[in-house]
Amino acid sequence: MKELLRSNDMTVIAFAKALLQGEDIEVFELDVNMSILDGSLGILPRRLMVRREDHFIAASVLTANDIDLGQ
């Protein structure tokens, strides 16, 4: 698995997941429980992970939809 996106913005995470699932790219969200533990203040970012072989196309899908990958 390779990190694709890290964000505190839940709308960006939800939009990115929907785009990737629409392209049949399996996506796994990390740090969900940690961000809940911080009291939902948005201090701890969540990470979206994809398989290494899907990383290039997944990054292309997100950048084509104006999602900044910060890389």
Automatic annotation (TrEMBL):
Q: Which Pfam families match?
A: DUF2007 (PF09413)
Q: Which InterPro entries match?
A: DUF2007, N-reg_PII-like_a/b
Q: Which domain of life is it from?
A: Bacteria
- Which residues does the UniProt record annotate as the domain DUF2007? 1-63
This chain's protein is named DUF2007 domain-containing protein
**Which organism's genome codes for this protein?**
Thalassorhabdomicrobium marinisediminis
